[in-house]
């Protein structure tokens, strides 16, 4: 199985946490992608599965792109509109998903996806984007990878998440981590966008317990919606484990924020 069942409101209740506590994409990464792809002011960019809109807002703010953000979660779109207003830029945010893509979204210079491609029918999405994308255009997958975390708070977060997340959500997570899961790069190499290049920026970040708990609540597996009445219990369990791990309440992470640029030959 290579497609996770579509649930349009999977990220309900996460928007406020997602904007504040997920790993940010540095302006320098957006600027490097802009230069590498030749994106110019006024070029059309689709931020697919935009969430609270960080990527689309950044490209509108830094590159002057004509951005549309598409997401199936109304709360995410509300947060995205607030973010665009705070940045003083215009982005069109639309309710929908990859299953709603059609000619009205094209022609596109770039489609960006930030931690969202794995929720889609990836082969079908790339085939549709091939029809909507200009000849010199590209698909760009934004993500992040952890290099280290100190002390080992990510192990604690993983253990608590496995303990409290509902069984159906754990099953989906295991699918995406299992041996039969096909990597994004393989889908891209089978598509029209088979010319791949990755750009990454490595940074170190200082965190406290509140930020780690906020990170947990931003994830579909441990969102307040998924946890329900167990939300407070998870928070307390996580606080207790983190306090034992670091009595001074200080944690660090070294991460790479990256962009996988996929273009045609």
From TrEMBL:
Keyword Ion transport part of the UniProt annotation: no
Positions of the Methyltransferase domain: 46-137
Pfam family, one: Methyltransf_25
One function term, GO molecular function aspect: methyltransferase activity
InterPro entries tied to this protein: Diverse_substrate_MTase, Methyltransf_25, SAM-dependent_MTases_sf
UniProt keywords, alphabetically: Methyltransferase, Transferase, Ubiquinone
Record bears the keyword Disulfide bond: no
Record GO biological process: methylation
Protein name: Ubiquinone/menaquinone biosynthesis C-methylase UbiE
Organism: Rhizobium lentis
